[in-house]
Amino acid sequence: MDRMKNKVVLVFGAGSAGPGFGNGKAAAVAYAREGGRVVCVDVDLDAAKNTLEVIEAEGGTGLALAADVTKSSDIATVVEQTIERFGRIDVLHNNVGINVPGGAAEATEESWRRVMDVNLTSAFLTCKAVLPIMERQGSGAIINISSLASIRWTGYPYVSYYASKAALNHFTRAIAIEYAAKGIRANAILPGVMDTPHIQKQISGYYGSAEEMKAKRDALSPMKRQGDGWDIAWASVFLASDEAKYITGIELPVDGGLHVTVAGSMSC
C-alpha cells in the first residue's frame, strides 16, 4: 500500500531496546512500508541505524540520527538535517518514554523531573520545532504515544509515569484544537499491556521469570494476550494517513479492550 507515499516521517524513539520490534521501531518500518521516507531518531545511534537497515533492506528510504529529546539543540539539529535531506516534514511521531518506579512518597524529585522531561517536555520540544514547518506547509500529522496508564491505574507504582502520560494526552488535545484550522492534526495512542523489548526490560523485576510475566500480563487483557509493537505501528500509520483526515484530538486505546474493564482488576 502507499498511505505514506510522498510523505516524510520523523520518528523520535525509532530504535528498539533489544532484539525484536518495539513500538517505535515497528512504527518506523511500517511508515516506510507504506511509502514514507522515514527519519529514524534515537538516543542510541546504533539502534536508529538498525531500524534504518531494516527499512533499506525492504527497499525503503530514510535517515538515521541520534538525539537526546530533552535537549532542544539536539532536536533542532535533527529537524534541520531532515529538511536539508527531504525538504519537508509531514508526520511527527513521538515514541520516547521511560518509567521509573516510585509512588508519590517514594519517588525522588530527581526521578520525577527526569520522567517529566523525557515523557512530556520532549514532545513539547519536538512539536515546538516541527509545528512552524507544518504550518508553512499547510498540513501535518502528529502522533504522540501515550499509555493506558494515562487514564487508569495499571497495577505498577509509577506515579511520575501516570502523571506525565496524562499530561501528554491533554497536550495533544491542545495542539489538535489550536492547529485544526491550519491543516495539522494531533492524536495520541494509548498502548495497553504490551510485549515489547522495552517492557521486558522495564518491569521484569516484578516477576519471578519471563514466563510468569508473560502469563500474568496475557491474562490481564480481555483478549488474553498482550499487544506488540506492530499493533501500535499500524494504528499510527492509520492516524497519520489521509484516511484519518477528519480525526484529530483523540486518545486511541490499543489495548485489546482493557480500557473498558474495571480498573481495580489490574495488578502486577
In short:
The protein has helices at 23-33, 45-57, 72-86, 109-137, 159-178, 197-203, 210-220, 229-240, and strands at 8-12, 37-42, 61-66, 91-94, 140-145, 184-191, 251-254.
Structural class: alpha/beta
- How many strand units? 7
| Spatial ordering of strands, largest sheet | 3-2-1-4-5-6-7
Quick one: CATH class?
Alpha Beta
CATH topology: Rossmann fold
Helical amount among residues, as a percent range?
A: 40-55%
Query: Mean pLDDT score, rounded?
Result: 93
Biggest β-sheet strands, sense, barrel: 7 strands, parallel
Low-confidence stretches: 264-268
Sum up the overall morphology in one term.
globular
CATH level-two architecture:
3-Layer(aba) Sandwich
Query: What's the gyration radius in Å?
Result: 18 Å
Q: What is the chain-wise order of helices and strands?
A: EHEHEHEHEHEHHHE
Share of residues in strands: 5-15%
Give the SSE layout.
Elements: E1 8-12, H1 23-33, E2 37-42, H2 45-57, E3 61-66, H3 72-86, E4 91-94, H4 109-137, E5 140-145, H5 159-178, E6 184-191, H6 197-203, H7 210-220, H8 229-240, E7 251-254
Helix pairs in contact: 1-2, 1-8, 3-4, 4-5
